[in-house]
Design goal:
The complex is a heterotrimer. By secondary structure, chain A is an alpha+beta fold. Chain A is 46% helix and 12% strand. In chain A, helix 1 crosses helix 2 and helix 4 runs antiparallel to helix 6. By secondary structure, chain C is mainly α. Classes of the chains: A alpha+beta, B mainly alpha, C mainly alpha.
Chain lengths: 203, 93, 102
């Protein structure tokens, strides 16, 4: 592939994620209090300084680059649509229950009814954590497992043929990418990538 | 009776961990072994928490389980990253 | 309340056993990962939820909740890391058509 080299920027002005940094400090402080379980002033001061130090040290890791489809400017990890994400979780948990039962059914039958196959589809998110959430959600839903994610191209391994079609039907968008897209405000529609036999994308 | 049932569950959990060696030792690729090891890790956490509940020292055991979960996750991450660059010929055996 | 906790813990334990059986029985690495990624994750989550119900409202339950959240994020991620590592190392998924290809 003779594509021009992409310039990936990790620089984010300090003011852009100051709110998230403060919230992270408070969260880590609460974490400290929960773990230590002591409320003397000495421990609280040590805990607060530790939380502040961790926030300052890990700030470079919390800046994520974005691909050119989403503007190319970096973004903070913590700038998520938290409320919509929380509303999405119960549905995900229910899917996990269903998938575990179906998997248990497959495993416990003497003749395992499996017919594995690999499918690919493409989906882009404005926020990089969207890829993480969709990949984990695919892993947790019935009969599918995320194998690889590269620039928004998902490679998914399916146990049965029916589950492959439920995730990425031929014409329209599958249920799972649609819901995650609603949470994160997807930038682009799904394009089905035809199955080819080369093993992964070389880079 | 209550104690007997708990002991039975702990015994089944320990057996579960032992049975997983049936995947780690023959496992055709190194990744099969990794999966077996990760399952042993999670089963150990569960068994440890259960033993904590049996001993009524859950408050102590919980801290150890949290640390064990984090360290196990990071270990598996590093191992998977290490074997990612290996070819299939290296991965077998 | 104890019965709810016991039911949750037994269900989780059963799913852990199913995960182990799946890892032993399924034919190739990717299908084994299915068993790990689903049955084992839900098994652990149910088990720890049962322990939380058993413990009631306390600092210990809060710490169990931390373990719960961590495992809920870490376990699918670890599964995904394994599958990606195996895929990039050149492992071919087993299919029904060609027996013994994996």
């Amino acid at each position: 592939m003779a594509e021009p080299k992409k310039v990936i920027s990790f620089r984010l002005p300090l003011g852009a994620d100051l709110k998230y940094s403060l919230l992270l400090t408070l969260f880590l402080f609460a974490f400290w209090v929960v773990l230590s379980g002591r409320l003397e002033a000495r421990y609280l001061i040590i805990g607060f300084l530790t939380a502040l130090g961790v926030t300052v040290i890990t700030r470079p890791f919390s800046v994520l680059p974005r691909d050119s489809a989403a503007g190319g400017t970096p973004v903070s990890v913590w700038g998520l649509p938290w409320l919509r994400l929380l509303a999405f979780l119960p549905w995900l948990f229910w899917e996990l229950v269903k998938s575990s039962i179906s998997m248990a059914w497959v495993v416990l039958q003497p003749k395992m009814p499996i017919d594995p196959q690999v499918i690919r589809f493409e989906k882009h998110f404005p926020h990089p954590v969207g890829y993480l959430v969709l990949a984990n959600a695919i892993t947790l839903t019935p009969g599918t497992l995320t194998v690889d994610v590269q620039d928004g191209r998902f490679t998914v391994h399916c146990v049965q043929k029916a589950t492959a079609e439920s995730l990425a039907p031929a014409e329209r968008e599958g249920e799972m990418p649609r819901r995650v897209g609603l949470v994160f405000g997807a930038a682009r529609q799904v394009d089905l990538v035809p199955e080819d036999d080369d093993n992964g994308e070389e880079q | 009776m209550h104690y007997f049932l708990l002991a039975l569950i702990v015994a089944i959990g320990a057996l579960n961990i032992l049975v997983l060696f049936g995947r780690i030792i023959p496992g055709p690729t190194v990744f099969d072994r990794l999966v077996g090891v990760s399952l042993i890790g999670t089963n150990t956490i569960i068994l440890f928490l259960l033993l904590g509940a049996v001993w009524e020292r859950l408050d102590m055991v919980v801290n150890v389980a949290l640390a064990y979960a984090v360290v196990g996750f990071i270990t598996l991450l590093v191992l998977a990253k290490y074997f990612e660059g290996k070819s299939e010929e290296d991965a077998e055996s | 309340m104890t019965y709810v906790a016991a039911a949750l813990m037994l269900a989780g334990f059963f799913l852990l056993l199913v995960g182990t059986i799946g890892v032993l029985r399924l034919p190739d690495f990717f299908t084994r990962l299915h068993a790990v990624g689903k049955c084992d994750t839900l098994g652990m989550l149910l088990f720890i939820a049962g322990l939380m119900v058993y413990e009631g409202l306390s600092l210990t339950a809060l710490k169990l909740l931390l373990i719960w959240i961590f495992l809920a994020i870490a376990n699918p991620t670890a599964t995904h890391i394994f599958s990606r590592a195996a895929y990039r190392a050149g492992l071919k998924p087993w299919t029904r058509g060609k027996e013994g290809a994996g």
